[in-house]
Amino acid sequence: MNITQQDRHDLFAKLQSALGESGASTLMELLPLQPNAELATRADMASLRDTVRGELAEVRGEIAEVRGEISELRGELKGDMASLRSELKGDMASLRSELKGDMASLQSELKGDMASLQSELKGDMASLDGRLTTEMGRLDGRLTREMGRLYRWGAAVVAANAVSTITVILAA
């Protein structure tokens, strides 16, 4: 039998006349709103509990499988990492050896270039020294001539001043 809202209202009205407003409200609150077919029984709860326990057992089994897979993957990863580490060490040793060879070659090449530059600089310096010596000799000759000319000019100025001074003294 399905109880409608109208049936509940009629019951409340009868209870209200028999028990009063407060008693009728209290009793109506204790009565379920759902039909009895929707209420869970102890057997329903036990069946649900058993179903949930079964599903939990399945989930635990799946978790154990996942843990096994994770453990297996961890082992594979460790192996891969060890292999990669070994490979990297080999590559680094090879690169180190190659780099040392390149550095030795570069060092030898730089020493040769430096020796060539040193020789070239010595030649340039010797050439410059010769040109400077020649130029200094030429300038020394010019300076000597100019000094001679200045000396003669100075002597002439001194003589002219002496003559002027004597002339002034005699005129006075």
Keywords:
mainly alpha; 172 residues; 2 domains
Short note summarizing the structure:
The chain has helices at residues 5-30, 42-171. The protein is mainly α and 172 residues long.
Walk me through the structure.
This protein has 172 residues and is an all-alpha fold. It folds into two domains: 1-39, no CATH class; 40-171, no CATH class. It has helices at 5-30, 42-171. The chain is elongated and about 175 Å long.
Low-confidence stretches: none
What characterizes the major β-sheet? none
Elements, N to C (H/E): HH
Number of domains: 2
Helix content: over 70%
Radius of gyration, rounded? 61 Å
State the distance separating the first and last CA atoms.
170 Å
Work out the oligomeric state of the chains in this entry.
single chain
**In terms of structural class, how would the helical and strand content be classed?**
mainly alpha
Which shape, going by the Cα principal axes?
Answer: elongated
